[in-house]
Amino acid sequence: MEWLRKIVLDPQTERFIMAVIIANAVVLGLETSKTAMASYGPLLILLDHIMLGIFVVELAARIVVHRWAFFRDPWSVFDFLVVAVAVVPTTENFSVLRALRVLRVLRLITALPSLKRVVAGLLAALPGMGSILLLIGLIYYVFAVMATKMFGNDKPELFGTLGDSLFTLFTVMTLEGWVDGVTKPVMETHPWAWIFFIIFIVFTTFMVLNLFIGVVVNAMQAEAEKGMAAERAAEREMIHEEAAPILTEVKRLRSELADLRKDLASKAAGAG
After folding, report:
1. Is the pLDDT confidence value at 11 over 60?
2. For domain 126-225, is the CATH number 3.40.190.10?
């Protein structure tokens, strides 16, 4: 199986699979066009099946080469699941599976090391982001209760219930039309309401949401440093492997030189 291992680990194979992923993304996009399907439908479906076959063969080869180690690698399991979803036969009752075929495009993440580092950084940031989500949820809930009690009677379409207030404050948090759509109508009966909304925006949009950026940036930096450390370790290992024969030869020469010195010393002692 050494020949198969060489093919799987060959950089040319990785580049070929990457090209197939990109081509498959284009084909899946064309399949959403009624014009393209009317003109080239059978060809596009054939190309899609061929590319899926390539993915299946490539995954099978990786499983044969790496065996159980394949399933211990999260990225390999991700590739397996994405392709497995595409292989599952679809019916009208499970048409969502047909739409999930586009997930094959996400295999580009595992094909590009830079994308893998970005996703790994985002995953590493999830614990910190969870704490921030809890904080923003508490602030969001407190302001929603306050808005319902203060503005609910005058503007029931915006703050009549807690659910309405949560939705309205969410639109305010996104800064999409919050002045004309929310603040000015409320200020018709509550002129001081702008203070409430500005404080809410400062806490949610300008402070708490920026914490997300800080957590993600720190995680990305840590992941980049980890990747650089792994690259340096790989370079040191490669240098060590390349230098190993030289070191062995040096040790052999030292041993021969030591033996030669012993012979010369013994001959000099015999002559004396």
Report:
1. yes
2. no
